[in-house]
Specification:
With about 800 residues, the chain is α+β, with helices and mostly antiparallel strands. The protein has 29 helices and 26 strands. About 40% of the residues lie in helices and about 20% in strands. The strands form 8 sheets. It has a 5-stranded mixed β-barrel. It has a 5-stranded parallel β-sheet with strand order 16-19-22-15-23. Helix 13 crosses helix 14. It is elongated and about 130 Å long.
Length: about 800
């Protein structure tokens, strides 16, 4: 499709008569209303003219987009707002022309000339030479089009916030969907064609950013003038003969040559948005929608992000052979105006002290502040090093308030999966995984990873998968997958054929998509050995090397791996080592910084507390209140994510005086492992790096700039706790074997411990039966124990067969 640029507006092509006059009058009214809105609207928090100030920034070339907030437009003129929502594509041109008319002159005189300035100056000089200082105003094709000279783009947004992305209506509530700010994909029906809509979903595919031709510039070899062709569709037919007035007057067919430097290209990218699982009805498959992204919105989202996209719902006809088969059916797409992420990454949510924004540029920060998107006030803070003042945003002030509390460490750990009972040390380890340590880049190019890897292994039903899900909820960027449903290609990268260019391209897998995030792999032991070897390079080098289909490259996979594995034979065998139970090679186990063993142990008191906790969660929908001595409540996922974002800005260093202490602790760990006949883990040089990573993460958690000895002690404690469960279970295995060998002695020990615990000289027969049942001792063995020790005068049995200890419980 093609059009030759006409300098007049859209209504100029309307046939003459009353209909053309009426449409032209409506267009003039819309243009006048739009210009009045841009020049007279003031923000609610002050008397400043919001959009006129934005136009001034555009004139000074500090801003490249004019973002119109629909809330502002509705407050100014509700009728104009509804017209824009119903026919957004047309009003983009209306507001662009209104902005051109209301554009103030530039106040910055130091702006360098660009290609548009050069073309404008050359065109005027050429017109003066040929027309004798009389510009060829009658030849519209030789005028610079407004699309070419315009240095901004008009975008409409609904000012969607991350909390609006939570599903508020089901696909069956049509009345609610018509009023909802964010719609599911199934709510996009034919009556919304051409309207401004906001849909939610998850991005499954992101193409490369490529230049898209918007205005083609040609140069005539006869008359020397440039001819401009505006491109409005996906395809166009280049002009071959000069249509200028000069060539037609001379009756010369001038040849046109395309000038790429004089043409205008915009950044173009395609996204694939898939329906959220919560929006898919029962028995249906998720739908998807193609998103066209241009200009400044490119590279703002990546695969795996849960987003809400505001844009224009438009049809696109099929071309070529597809058009013959489709007939009157057209495909649809969404032209993006705004992209809002449900969970910002740690770097994007950062308000830098230098006044920068997420991308680190001061210009972007000024633009964000002008748009009202910069959250938190920047306030000065005294006490900077060297007397230099630095600033702190509201997010960091709130984080420091939490860090200064006495139970900050326990409170933060308690905020992870509060509905899951127990596992306090495991939650602390997961907190350190989210915080991580800074990556060290040495002078010789060696790179030491700072991401923490954790493996949770144990019996089924101990909430391993739920812990993984909770980490995915807190982490801004995370990918959840299972061992049986993942292959080596699905974890690393696959070679696919691009649908647009028909070229072989690389499509990243789960580990690549989780770059700078967390990759949770459940059922880790169910993976094939050939697929599991693909993780070795990622866990240590944090890269994925590819040599397929003529493509040789290295992809970044700077991710923390959190895996959960079940024992080899269903339940944990206490007589075997962890490597034999989990059935994973030592080369893979040694790459985990922490290796937790979570077993389902039989303990009556603990089982009762666990049952009460689960019943409370089912009855009230939340975890029970904390203990009386714990006053501070846990944090919400948003607050925890904000605190981790502030903590990750720190880069703590290990002081020189602490090196000897860490080295001695590492040597002690190696000595303990060498002294055991059957080591439960593998202590290597990676263990030393793990201690440093955990200690640095703890220093980050305290918002400190230096690692303290207490941080190293806590890191060593977590490592011992993760291994202590292995040794404790081994000791319990020996006790179990002894109990199985002598159940009478085991029953006597239980009754004596009960008497000592309750400080009573009488233990009822019912309580003895309960203790024996909990320990797996039969009733026959219990009666044998009672009779045997009664004959030895250790205790006396009354008429109810209650145990009366001779000499009291202390004997």
């Amino acid at each position: 499709r093609q059009i030759l640029f006409l300098h007049h507006s859209l209504m100029a092509t309307t046939p003459g008569g009353s209909m053309g006059s009426m449409l032209s009058g409506k267009y003039s009214e819309a243009l006048a209303s739009s210009r009045l809105f841009l020049t007279s609207f003031s923000s609610t928090n002050g008397g400043d003219l919001k959009y006129l100030s934005n136009l001034q920034d555009i004139a000074n070339r500090k801003r490249s987009s004019l973002i119109i907030d629909m809330n502002d437009l509705y407050a100014y003129d509700p009728e104009l707002c509804e017209s824009v929502k119903g026919n957004t594509k047309r009003y983009m041109n209306v507001f662009a022309e209104a902005a051109d008319a209301a554009m103030p002159p530039a106040t910055d005189t130091s702006i360098p000339d660009d290609v548009i300035d050069t073309l404008t100056r050359q065109r005027r000089e050429a017109q003066r030479e040929q027309e004798g200082d009389t510009p060829a105003a009658d030849d519209d094709l030789q005028q610079l089009p407004a699309v070419l000279t315009r240095r901004f783009e008009v975008l409409f947004t609904n000012a969607v916030k991350p909390e609006d992305l939570k599903p508020t209506a089901t696909t069956t509530d049509k009345d609610k969907l018509s009023e909802a700010a964010v719609l599911p994909l199934r709510a996009l029906t034919a009556d919304r064609i051409g309207s401004l809509v906001c849909v939610r979903g998850i991005i499954t595919k992101v193409t490369d950013v490529k230049p898209q031709l918007q205005v083609a510039t040609y140069t005539c070899d006869e008359c020397g003038f440039e001819i401009y062709q505006e491109i409005t569709g996906g395809q166009y037919m280049p002009i071959t003969e000069c249509p200028a007035t000069v060539c037609r007057t001379r009756k010369v067919n001038g040849s046109l040559f395309h000038q790429p430097r004089g043409s205008k290209f915009v950044k173009y990218q395609e996204l694939k948005l898939q329906e959220l699982s919560s929006d898919v009805p029962i028995g249906h498959t998720p739908r998807s929608l193609t998103i066209h992204v241009r200009g400044t919105l490119t590279r703002t989202a990546s695969a795996g992000d849960s987003v809400a996209i505001t844009g224009i719902f438009l049809p696109v006809p099929f071309t070529g052979y597809k058009a013959m088969r489709a007939g009157l059916i057209a495909d649809t797409y969404l032209e993006a105006m705004n992209i809002c992420k449900e969970k910002q990454s740690f770097d994007e949510s950062r308000g830098t002290a230098e006044g920068g924004s997420a991308d680190g540029s001061a210009e972007a920060a000024e633009a964000a502040a002008a748009d009202g998107n910069q959250e938190g006030a920047i306030v000065p803070v005294e006490g900077a090093a060297g007397g230099a003042a630095f600033v702190m945003d509201a997010e960091e002030i709130a984080a420091r308030h939490i860090a200064n509390s006495p139970d900050a460490y326990d409170r933060l750990a308690r905020s992870i999966a509060p509905e899951i009972y127990g596992h306090v040390d495991v939650k602390k380890a997961l907190l350190l995984l989210l915080v991580g340590a800074p990556t060290r880049q040495l002078t010789d190019g060696l790179r030491i990873r700072g991401d923490v890897h954790i493996c949770l292994m144990g019996d089924p039903g101990v909430a391993k998968s739920q812990l993984l899900k909770q980490v995915c909820q807190v982490a801004p960027r995370s990918v959840y997958t299972t061992g049986r449903g993942s292959s080596g290609v699905g974890l690393t990268a696959a070679v696919t054929r691009d649908a647009v260019t028909n070229e072989l391209v690389l499509e990243g897998g789960a580990l690549v998509l989780a770059d700078n995030g967390v990759c949770c792999i459940d059922e880790f032991d169910k993976m094939d050995e050939s697929d599991r070897t693909a993780i070795h390079e990622v866990m240590e080098q944090q890269t994925v090397s590819i040599a397929k289909a003529g493509i040789t490259t290295t992809l970044n996979a700077r991710t923390s791996v959190l895996s959960a594995a079940n024992p080899k034979y269903g339940r944990y065998d206490l007589r075997a080592t962890p490597s034999e139970n989990i059935d994973m090679p030592a080369a893979l186990l040694s790459r985990f910084d922490l290796l937790f063993l979570i077993l389902d142990r039989s303990d009556r008191d603990r089982d009762e507390r666990l049952a009460h906790h689960v019943l409370h969660v089912h009855a009230h929908g939340a975890a029970p209140d904390p203990d009386a001595e714990v006053t501070a409540a846990g944090l919400t996922p948003e607050q925890l994510r904000s605190y981790i974002s502030v903590a990750r800005r720190r880069d703590p260093l290990v002081p020189t005086g602490l090196a000897d202490y860490v080295a001695a602790a590492y040597a002690e760990l190696r000595k303990e492992e060498a002294a055991t006949d059957r080591p439960h883990s593998y202590t290597t040089a990676r263990t030393l790096l793990a201690v440093l990573r955990l200690g640095t993460a703890l220093a980050r958690l305290r918002l400190a700039d230096e690692v303290a000895q207490a941080d190293v002690d806590e890191a060593l404690r977590l490592m011992r706790v993760s291994k202590a469960s292995l040794y404790a279970e081994a000791e319990d295995a020996g006790d179990a074997r002894r109990r199985r060998a002598d159940p009478v002695s085991a029953a006597f020990a239980l009754i004596r411990e009960e008497a000592i615990r309750t400080d009573a000289s009488v233990v009822t027969h019912e309580r003895c039966a309960e203790l024996a049942t909990g320990a797996g001792i039969s009733a026959e063995d219990l009666e044998e124990c009672l009779n045997e020790y009664a004959e030895l005068n250790v205790w006396v049995l009354n008429d109810n067969r209650d145990v009366v200890l001779v000499g009291g419980a202390d004997e």
